[in-house]
Amino acid sequence: MLLNSFLLSLNAIVSIFVTMAVGYGAKRLLKLEKGHVQKFNALVFHTLLPLMLFYNIYTSDIRGGVSFRCLGLALAVLMALFLLTWLLVAKIEPANDQRGVMIQASFRSNFLLLGMPLIRELCPGADLATVSVMLAIVVPCYNVLAVITLEAFHRKDIHPKKILLGIARNPLIIASAAGVLLNLSGLSLPGFLESPISQLGSSASPVALLLLGAQFEFHDVRVYRRNLAVCTALRLLVFPGAALPLAALAGLRGPEFAVLISMFATPTAVASYSMASQMGGNPELAASAVTVTTLLSAGTMFLWIFLFKSLGMF
Question: What is the pTM of this model?
Answer without folding.
Answer: 0.82
